[in-house]
Amino acid sequence: HLLFEGKKLPEDPGADTVDFPKRTTPAKGYELLFQPEVVRIYISLLKESKTPAILEASAGAIQNLCAGSWTYGRCIRSALRQEKGLSAIADLLTHDSERVVKAASGALRNLAVDLRNKELIGKHAIPNLVKNLPGGQQSPAKNLSEDTVVSVLNTINEVIVDNLEAAKKLRETQGIEKLVLINKSGNRSEREVRAAALVLQTVWGYKELRKPLEKEGWKKSDFQV
C-alpha cells in the first residue's frame, strides 16, 4: 500500500474487479497501448519516476485510456485500483510541476467514472485537489493557470456528484470558502467562475448539507451563479 497523507489508501482489489477481454490473437499496433501489462508499466512509472515529463505523460496516457465508456476504459479504471495506482496519481496533485498536477487531475476525473474509484478518490484526494485552488488562508498560495484551475474544479465536481461523503470532505477542507471566492471575487476568468459555480450547485443539491452550511454562515445565494 502506498501511503497517502499519513494514512493507507484502502484500495480493495477484490471490489468490483473488471477483467480485460480474453484475446485469441496477440495484440498489435495501437492495441498494445491498452493491454494489462502496458497499464502496469504506466503505474510503475507513476510510482517510481522522478522526471516531470514522464509523470505528466503517464498520467496523460491514463487519462486518455480511461475516457468514455469503451470496454478497455472500464477495465483500466478497475486495473488502476487493483494495482494500487489511485494513490500514486493522487500524490501527484502536490507535485511542483503544474503540468504534472493538471495531468493528474485529468486522470482522476476519468478514473472517478468508476463508482468504487470515485468513493476512494473522494476520501483521499479531495484535500489535495482543494489545495490547488486559488484563495483561502493557505500559505504560500498556489498560482496555477486558468486551464489547471478549471481542470481541478471539473475533477472535484465529477468526484462529488452522487457522492455525499466526498461533498462533506470538500466542506471540511476549506473547499466552500475557496469556491465562493472564485465565484464572487470578480478577479477570476469566466471559465473558472462557471466551473466553480457548478461545484457549488452540486454541493447545495445535497439537502443533508444545507443546515450545517447555514450554521457556518453560508447562504443559499452563495451557491448560485
TrEMBL record:
GO cellular component assignments: adherens junction; cytoplasm; nucleus; plasma membrane
Cellular localisation: Cell junction
Domain of life per record: Eukaryota
A single GO BP: cell-cell adhesion
Pfam families: Arm
Keyword flag Repeat: yes
Keywords: Cell adhesion, Cell junction, Repeat
Gene3D superfamilies: Leucine-rich Repeat Variant (1.25.10.10)
First-listed, main subcellular location of the protein, grouped into a coarse class: other
Coiled coil stretches, renumbered: none
ARM repeat start and end residues: 84-121
Similarity comment: Belongs to the beta-catenin family.
Designated name of the protein: CTND1 protein
Organism: Mystacornis crossleyi
Gene transcribed to yield this protein: Ctnnd1
